[in-house]
Every structure is written in C-alpha cells, then in structure tokens.
Amino acid sequence: MWRKKCNFAGEFFITMGILSKILGRQTAGNNEMKIGGMEDFMTLIRVYFQAVMAADLNITNLAALPDLRVFKTSLRVPTQGGKLGIGEKARCKKMLKEMYDMDDQFFKEIDQSIGRRCKRIQDVQAYLLQFQAFIQDVMMLTGNLMKFKLRLPSFFKKAIRTMTEKTVHDIFTKNDYTDAGVMKTVVAVREYNKRLNFSEKWVTDFVYRVVMLAKKEKQPQSGE
C-alpha cells in the first residue's frame, strides 16, 4: 500500500499520538500499519484536499502536492480532460466511501470550504495550516472532554457516536468551561471554523471515524 508523510501530515500524526495515549494503546515496537487503518485514512484525506486544490486552482506541478503525486503514480490514476485533480479526486472519494463509509456531504463540505477560502495558489498554504491547527485542537479537546468514555469497546458504536456528537456540539456552543486552557482552545477552534466553515456533523464524522480506527488498531494488543 502506498504511504508518504509530508508537512501536511505532521499535525495529524501528533494528534493521533495524543488519541492513542487516551485509548491506552501501546505502540512501542509495533510499526506495522494496517491497510485501511488510520494512517491510510489520513493519507486519503490529504490526497482528497490536494486533488480538490489542484482541480480548482489549475495546479499542474505535482511536486507541490506530494501525497497526490504518490497516490496518482502508485495507483496509476489517469489525468482526466488534461486537468490534474479531477480523476484523482473521484478515485480518492470512491476509496474513502468504500473503505470508511464517508458520505457525500462530507466531501461536499470540503469542496465548499476550499472553494470559499482558496481563490489563488498563494492561499493554499495558509488554508492548510489553519486546517491542521483546527483538526489538532478539535482532536485534543475531544480526547480531553470525553476522557475515559473513549475506552468503551468498539462494539458500542452507537454510544460512542452519541458521545462524540454531544462533545462536538459542546465545543461549538458551550461557554462555561471551568478549565481556562480548555476554554482558550474552544475559542481557537471556533475562530478557525469561522474561516473554514465546517458543520458540527462534518467534525463529528471526522472525529468518530478516527476514534473507531484507533480502537480497531488497538485490538490486537488488548484482545478487546
């Protein structure tokens, strides 16, 4: 399976380390990654973002889009209509839907967010940095606020989904957090999302999928 870590991946993998600690996952000495696991999910998300940007902004330099380049060359995705990003976006979307059950609205919101904020190639780097910070803060807050609730066995899918929805809703609406650090991060998340404009459902879908993948990868060590 193709995989490549680049700057866009950095914050994602920091976030995953935080989540793994919360879930009690032991990673030392275990470098095996599963096809269809969390790393592949994160890579496909990055590929999708880069494909949308390539298509919207007519980017032709694959060197500027390292995850998209690896995806395209490894899976031999043909360029559609002589325009980079269109065929790759469709292929990546198909994989995310089939492997991770992401729905059409999930992709629609990414398309709209990028279209709203990235009008020029120069806007791409700022957007990606904002998105990285947004996701890292959301995952840190979710982990801190849900705490041991995240350790529910993965077969309690409905309960985990409900708890995730409530926690995300609180992040966007609750204003009486007693911990000053939590409140500061909540404010930062809301400020980022004013620019990115993702819905609570989108954030819930993203967080829930990451949590369930983390649990799936934890199972061989715990026997859960």
What would you say this structure looks like, in words?
Residues 1-34 have low confidence and may be disordered. The two termini are 26 Å apart. It is globular, with a radius of gyration of 18 Å. With 224 residues, it is mostly helical. It has helices spanning 10-23, 38-57, 66-75, 86-100, 104-117, 123-146, 157-173, 180-196, 200-222. Helices cover 69% and strands 0% of the residues. Helix 1 (10-23) packs parallel to helix 6, helix 2 packs antiparallel against helix 4 and helix 7 (157-173) packs across helix 9.
What topology emerges from the helices and strands here?
Elements: H1 10-23, H2 38-57, H3 66-75, H4 86-100, H5 104-117, H6 123-146, H7 157-173, H8 180-196, H9 200-222
Helix pairs in contact: 1-6, 1-9, 2-4, 2-5, 6-7, 6-8, 7-9
Number of helices: 9
Q: What is the end-to-end distance?
A: 26 Å
Task: Summarize the amount of helix as a percent range.
Answer: 55-70%
Global Rg = 18 Å
What form results from the Cα inertia axes?
globular
The topology string of helices and strands comes to: HHHHHHHHH
**Mean pLDDT over all positions:** 83
> What is the structural class?
mainly alpha
Summarize the structure.
By secondary structure, the chain is an all-alpha fold. Helices cover 69% and strands 0% of the residues. The protein has nine helices and no strands.
Question: What are the main properties of this structure?
Answer:
single chain; 224 residues; mainly alpha; disordered N terminus
